[in-house]
Amino acid sequence: MRYLIIGNSAAGLNGAEAIRELDTDGEVTIVSEEDYPPYSRCLIPYFMEGKVSEDDMLYRPSDYYQAHSFRIMLGRRVVKVDTSKMEAQLEDGERLMYDRLLLATGGSPKIPDTTGMDKEGVLGFRTTRDLHAILRALKDTRNAAVLGGGCIGLMAACGLRAKGAEVLVVIRSPHLLSQVADAEAGEMFRRRFEENGVRVISGASVDEVRGDARVAQIHLDNGEQLECQLIVVGKGVAPNVTFLEGSGVAVNRGVVVDENLQTNIPEIYAAGDVAETTDVVTGEKAVNAIWPCAAEQGRIAGANMAGQARTYVGSMRMNSAEFFGLPLISIGVTKPPSDEYQVLSRRQETRNTYRKVVLKQNKIVGLVMVGEIENAGVYRALIQKKADISSVKDRLLDRNFGYPDILPLVAGDRQRFSEPEWRHSLISYRR
Amino acid sequence: MRKIMVDLQLCMGCNSCEIACAVQHSQSGDLFEALKEPVLPGYRLRVRASYGMPFPLRCEQCEDAPCIDACKSGAMARDPETASVQIDEDKCVGGWMCVMVCPFGAVFPDMERGKAVKCDLCRGHERPACVDACPTKALSYVEPDEFAARYMRAEAAKTSTEAE
């Protein structure tokens, strides 16, 4: 069996590993446009802050491909997939035949088409290539602007600040992290950023980037004009799907997959930031472009490709980040769209903590935790399991709310909590 | 695989397991010395209360461990020899993805050190220290199925004694 994997990150690598576990003889080829060993792009901000070395950014050891007998083709871009001939075509014309294909091409930073955005010094914050370009640009940068106040933008801001730049964050919404968390959390982080010397301009967007070849100034739609020699764009990512045009592989916002991560073409699967999956919380189709979902999808897609039928329960919007020492975890629906939802929340000024639990019909559908993040996963389990939490509702905001609080709930609903671990933890449990 | 299994009927909540765990993971391996160490070992197992009943909370070594998928640095991995889930502290960057996804809340964030901490089954030792330290034998290091069978037998024996 010939397996072809396009993509060398969370989804691609976990897919390749899952295949190898089940098929020791199959030919596994990994093609990647990026020309780097298997690193974790999530560690780029840590590298900028000096917390990890470039070697530490490796997600897998350097002898990894060899040890797993993977054929690796780095720095090679797939430009076309011919689904009838079952082959992928590379930029240089080479064709790779496959019996099973995994699309794990990820996404690319969305760069606004504002005038001047094509100047030198406007960069994304996603790849090692971006990282090196930023480091080069920083040599003659005094003022850096970050566009976007989500996790990526803010991590970039922390990294740039750590490198000594004067940092400005420009966001269109009134609050930082407005897509990720909520206004309350956003204000806690705004304060934290300002305390650390980062200026935040909210409710504004860039309407022009000025300069000669290189960025020199940004002009905002509120009339402000600011000097900057570097712009890092953190306004989300768009799935890398252009090479699929005309291939017959169905693409909506991302590559459309079913619960086996299979596309409309039976021998083609997709996983990670390129795939559009079903969101467990909302039940709607979504591209949840986050590392944990990518890794899990890769693993499940790989298993299916190698013949072991496995079902994906669905993706979930979730984020874990820490900015200037203040941690944040957010999951699911954090800003309820209607009054069908109930919100429980608690802000403790003295501890600088905030916790918010969003409920819908006595089920948890969202969580925000700032400052204290222990036990976040217990809430997540309740979200994923869609468990009725009426019996523990009055405990949900307790500082120590955790697994011991839901023992009776889990014990009373063993069909829902059916995985061996839940069972094991309850063997000697009596109410 | 063998895991730390708990007989909740025997647990008195004495916290001996927590202390043994901390000593085992200290630099010196001695309780009184450990208290003076600059880096405290942190919790890998915690005795928590569940509606008035003690509950020793620890990693369940999940078969399909979400923390492994979630870890963005590749620090969380399955140990091929014991099938346990282990953190490579050198690789851990404190991204807290594991904390976000552990359904038991059994991965503890050590915010000061920026490292995630969890039960490692006292890797390299014959038995986890907590198991040896438990005065009532509530904790055992055993296959879950074997533990279940043993627990059921003990319960059945108790019921028949009570009936007589």
Order of helices and strands of chain B: EHHEEHEEHEEHEH
| Radius of gyration of chain B, CA atoms, in whole angstroms | 17 Å
What is the helix content of chain B?
25-40%
Class from secondary-structure proportions of chain B: alpha+beta
β-strand amount of chain B: 15-25%
The main sheet of chain B comes to:
2 strands, antiparallel
Give the N-to-C terminal Cα separation of chain B.
38 Å
How many strands in all of chain A? 26
N- and C-termini, Cα separation of chain A: 53 Å
The overall average pLDDT of chain A, rounded, is 97
User: What's the main sheet of chain A like?
Assistant: 5 strands, parallel
Under the CATH scheme, the architecture of the largest domain in chain B is: 2-Layer Sandwich
Number of helices of chain A: 10
CATH superfamily of the largest domain in chain A: FAD/NAD(P)-binding domain
What can you see in these coordinates?
- The complex is a heterodimer of chains A (431) and B (164).
- With 431 residues, chain A is α/β, with parallel strands linked by helices.
- Chain A has ten helices and 26 strands.
- Chain A folds into three domains: 175 residues, FAD/NAD(P)-binding domain (3-Layer(bba) Sandwich); 112 residues, FAD/NAD(P)-binding domain (3-Layer(bba) Sandwich), CATH 3.50.50; 93 residues, no CATH class.
- A five-stranded parallel β-sheet of chain A has the order 3-2-1-7-19.
- In chain A, a hairpin with a 4-residue loop joins β24 and β25.
- The N and C termini of chain A lie far apart (53 Å).
- With 164 residues, chain B is of the alpha+beta class.
- Chain B folds into two domains: 103 residues, Alpha-Beta Plaits (2-Layer Sandwich); 58 residues, Alpha-Beta Plaits.
- Chain B is built from six helices and eight strands.
- In chain B, strands 1-8 form a two-stranded antiparallel sheet. Chain B has a two-stranded antiparallel sheet with strand order 2-3.
- The interface between A and B is large, with 50 and 48 residues.
